[in-house]
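User: Here's a chain of 220 residues. Predict its fold as tokens.
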Amino acid sequence: MNSLRIGVFQRTPSRYDLQENNREENSWLGVYLSEDAGRTSNPTRCVTMFRQPTPDQIFVTLVDTYLDRIFRFLCNLIGNSELARDLCHEVFLKLRQQIERGNKPNEAYVFTTARNAAHSHWRTHARENSKHEAWGQQQAPHACTSAAVENNELRLALQTALAVLSDDQRTVFLLSEVEDLKYEQIGEVLNISAGTVASRKFKAVRVLREELRRLGHAMP
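Assistant: Prediction complete.
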């Protein structure tokens, strides 16, 4: 199956402020070399001391690694950059709590937390309108755009095509084609098998192609 990569989703959005406290200039892996240590027994002896990272240091590393990616993922998933900003802040607060409990979130857990935050928002606002209606309404004033896509009509067509996808299809497509997660990782995020991930992505690509063709933007 040919990969369908769409430029509108490839740009990393501008990093927004997220307060970072107690950032240390030194690396968490401290190496101490001393010629004086054990001089009486071995003048060339080196003593290496390893220091475990603090929760603050783990959190700073997590923010540096995932902040832009999670914001981009949420922005493309829900179609509203302002809402994505709020949810992103919520996601990292939850990740911080996990770190303080002694856990060290991996990539799949980080994206699972982001996806759950989006679904929690959808459930909360389900009575106001359907998720697909909400996606389209929120997309217009705060669309996630890319300088790589100069044609405004194509950008709007891509946004329209994304809105046609089911939430599960859109999530799989974004995690695979934009965030480059492996099928096994996506399966961990969504609690499904890698085979189910592949099936949903295949259907998502087919729907996107059909919708873009209908809108006059045929894709290879």
